[in-house]
Amino acid sequence: MANLIDDFLNALASEMPRCDAERLGAERYGSPRLSAFELLGTKETTLSYVISDLLDPRGTHGQGTLFLNAMLRAIKQPEVHVRDAIRVQREFLTKHKRRIDILIETPNSLIGIENKPFAGQGESQLIDYHTDLVERAGDRRTPCLVFLSDSDPETAKNHTNILRFYDWGEDLPSLSGMLREVDGEIRSTRSRAFVKDFHDWIARHLGGEEMTDELEPYAEEVLARLKRRRDRKAIGAVMLASDSIRCEVIDEIGQHFWTILRKTYPDLEREEGELSVSIDVDKDSWAMRDPSWPKNCVLAIEAQKKGACDVIYGIQALKPGTPEAEREPNYVCHDREGFEEGLQDLANGSSSNWWPWYQSAPTSAWSQEFIARLLIETNGEIVEHDDVKKMTADMIRLAEIIHTSDC
Fold first, then answer.
1. From 254's CA, which of 9, 173, 303, 313 has a CA 20 to 30 Å away?
2. Distance CA 335, CA 341 (A)
3. Which range of residues forms the domain containing residue 76?
4. Is 225 exposed, middle or buried (0-12, 13-18, 19+ CB in 10 A)?
5. 100, 129 in Cβ contact below 8 A?
6. How far is it, in rounded angstroms, from Cα 92 to Cα 285?
7. CA–CA distance, 288 with 42 (Å, rounded to integer)
8. How many domains is the chain partitioned into structurally?
9. Do residues 346 and 366 share a domain?
10. What is the pLDDT of residues 52-97, one digit of tens each?
11. pTM for this model (two decimals)
12. 21 with 45, same domain?
């Protein structure tokens, strides 16, 4: 059996230069990974700009009411006409001094959209939004609060319309479903390409899909060998080990982070379990901490959904005086304010009650396809991959901010 596997892998390895050439050709002439959304990052404010422009009949897409009516149908509100007065605003300030991400005024509805792709929900946030919408709508219009998230609302559940980002097959509308619904009605070539990019971004970063078009030559080579009966047993053996290979590579990434940081912080401690185990469970942090850092302040990596989907990383330190702190008093970091100021200069980060700074991993779904990409694009030297190098640099900077704070 060992000889069969060796022969198969050796034969496959001999074809890698050709597959590499085909991949580079696809990159040069097709640029399958090029996307403005990948370059702009994953900040909520950036997403709100994109979504509000699509929902504005006067938006740069030039498609009038097409996208707005698709959303109105999804949330069961009356559709609008071309000549109707529509107003779309971002960061609308409520009387409670909160900001609704997007506010849409139509002749029949007053719609507030809270855009929450990653961050946690603030205390009474949705209740305050609903109250403000009811007061502003009056008797003439219907107030409608939309929670755009792949999580469920924690408050105002009976007054909130849930709109998912990704179509998870639930009995709930989704933004990705809306975009698919109207795809055939988009008349502008540029708008259609823009919407496709946005849909693919949602699928990759929020739905856990892996875009691997440029890697097809490698898959095709293996499929060609599946037709050879002598190679089938070896292919089966490799498939049996695929999940173990994925876990091994993920653990190698975790070991790399720890090893690099220990060069500066030799007393750095880490979770006893492996990274691969933690991120296969939703919201089970894999953490590292130096004893000199504030109590309950750690560098952490965590998946927001089980199966290593929506992987985020950053500083985890529970904010005092929050509902989460009341539920988990043993995890409160009372010195959090001492290092929060130093985090303001870091680009593309978000914050929540649990995380003073966090960011979505460059590839947010750590699936088998992602691990395959790491191995192929680096010839096996996974710590040299741009995704891993980006996270490593951020981890080093975050550790430095914590270590040099006044806590």
1. 9
2. 12
3. 39-205
4. middle
5. yes
6. 34
7. 24
8. 3
9. yes
10. 999 999 999 999 999 999 999 999 999 999 899 999 999 888 877 8
11. 0.67
12. no
